[in-house]
Amino acid sequence: MSVTLHTTHGDLKVELFCEAVPQTAENFLALCACGAYNNTPFHRIFPGFMIQGGDISLGPAPGTLNTLKPMLPVNEIPKGGTSIYHPRALNQEIHLPALRHNARGILSMASRPVKDRTAPGSQGATGATVNGSQFFITFAAAPHLDGASTVFGKVLNLSAQDEGGDVLSKFEKARLKVDKKGRVTQPKEGEEEEYEAIGINNVTIHANPFANLEEDRQILAGSIGPNPLRFVELALGIPKAGSMTGTIYPGSTDYRHLCRPLSAADMALLGDLRVTLPARFAWQR
């Protein structure tokens, strides 16, 4: 699973760890797919350490999240950005020791502290920090971040010989206006010769295992149909080939309100699968 971040300084080829951190990967891919990361800046940089971006509140589009709905049901993007699970929290997925900040080019989520567990974006938080839309890329190993931030990918082109070239080095050597806290000020009109702009222009997704998720959710909600076989698969938590749908609906308890009459053809299509279903499903011939 890979994406290309088309940046002001070249293309970053990125591998994502979808199976290891599915919620984090789904969030990142969904924000890429809807254009939320388009024309957003890298707003912090520390050469030799990391570069940070992904604040979707700083991008010109979508200024409101109409293009994200119903994925992100808010009227305006909160300052600092947020995840597709808003107002629910995107919790840390730090459970695999192999996912570490142990090299140059590691992608990891930039978290924020939980101050109010009832606030939008923090509801359902299980730890002291939660994630949103922001992420960072390491310029070197940063073991002090292991156990504190969710690693979800890595940059593939790290040398001049790799396809796309060594973009991270271009970031580190860029002429930027940076304060002592690493905050980047993008050049204003007339300052382009003195300072460089730095950010993400757009993103290309090369393979998206979550591409069918929104369709599946609409099937469960009854707004797309009839697709009785897929409905049953979703209700039982059966993943579609090539997707991670089965991990999205664990522990679901009641789908009675979603059931609709099934025709004889539908029943034939379902075959013996119906005998495995809980009694709460109102099957009709």
TrEMBL record:
It is an enzyme of class 5 (isomerase). Signal peptide: none annotated. One of its GO terms (molecular function) is peptidyl-prolyl cis-trans isomerase activity. Its EC number is 5.2.1.8. Residues 6-205 form the PPIase cyclophilin-type domain. The keyword Isomerase applies. One of its GO terms (cellular component) is catalytic step 2 spliceosome. It comes from the Eukaryota. Keywords: Isomerase, Rotamase. InterPro entries: Cyclophilin-like_dom_sf, Cyclophilin-type_PPIase_dom, Cyclophilin_A-like. It catalyses: [protein]-peptidylproline (omega=180) = [protein]-peptidylproline (omega=0). Belongs to the cyclophilin-type PPIase family. PPIL3 subfamily. PPIases accelerate the folding of proteins. It catalyzes the cis-trans isomerization of proline imidic peptide bonds in oligopeptides. This is Peptidyl-prolyl cis-trans isomerase. It comes from Aspergillus felis.
